[in-house]
Amino acid sequence: MNLKSTLKWSAYCSAIIMFAVVLMGALVTKTDSGLGCGREWPLCNGKFIPEHAVSALIEYSHRAVSGLITILLLITAILVWLVDKRRDAKWFVGSAIFFTLLQAVLGAMAVIWPQSPVILASHFGLSLLAFACTLLLAMLYTRRAQAADAAANRDEPAVPPPALFRSAVWVITLYSLGVIYLGAFVRHTKSTGGCLGWPLCNGELIPELSGATGIVFTHRIAALVLLVCLIVLFVMARRHFPEGHPVYGAAKASLILVVLQIVSGAFVTWTIGVSGWGLLAALIHTVLVSGLFGILSYLCVTTLRLQPERFYNKQRSTA
């Protein structure tokens, strides 16, 4: 296996394992296993190998996989610098390492010192940013991306998206991160039960906006606004790009994912207090939100890629 092939598989494995880190982080939060190893880091209750308590195993497994992905990303970064001269690959792997280390430090601080829900919710957001960077890196080495690069190197004209569409993609992606943060804040403040029932909240269209009810209802409204934004984005993509275009496909996928995410949010509400199902609902919700943010991040990068005078043209000229 040559270095280029090794780099490709290293990038693929990084994205898969980082996705596992995000999912395991949600499992730690949902099962209240954050202190399964006590207030110690990196040891677990004074031991290198933890005792066979479920909470300790969940927390320690999350730490172990986080350590594994850090090592793999460092190896991937070395391979990128040795094999691939493109600037975007360096940005993606460098950003993935930065966000991974930052979320690890934040996680360690949350174990050693009590942290507010505001800080704890940021931990999930950083993990999601790290996942998006590894996903974007892996996508660089897919056949479709390589075909697009070949077309660009033949100087085939790219159709740049309208400025309004580019701005909408970036604003919606940033807004989605805020919605995701609100969802993590709901979990860390244990406010999930603030709105019983769906789509009504405690039997009311607009409930009293205080305490846990206000937090959950705000998240629901934010998710509804995100749905409207993605409908508008899909209509814009359909107007400017043919069905086979990557931008059209990504806009369509993001709309489907946000609908599924809202449905899964309803599933989370309906399974409150139901043993086993509540955990499954939360993990499904995490899978969908990770996919949604990954697709939106891809859209952001693609809007840059379709501007020949910008980032991607420069990175090709320096290759």
Automatic annotation (TrEMBL):
Listed name of the protein: Heme A synthase
Mode of membrane association: Multi-pass membrane protein
Subcellular location: Membrane
Keyword Membrane in record: yes
Taxonomic lineage from the root: Bacteria, Bacillati, Bacillota, Bacilli, Bacillales
Keyword Cell inner membrane annotated: no
InterPro entries recorded: COX15/CtaA_fam (IPR003780), COX15/CtaA_HemeA_synthase (IPR050450)
Associated pathway: Porphyrin-containing compound metabolism
Transmembrane segments: 9-28, 64-84, 91-113, 119-142, 163-184, 217-237, 249-273, 279-301
The entry's keywords: Cell membrane, Disulfide bond, Heme biosynthesis, Iron, Membrane, Metal-binding, Oxidoreductase, Transmembrane, Transmembrane helix
Pfam families: COX15-CtaA
Organism: Gordoniibacillus kamchatkensis
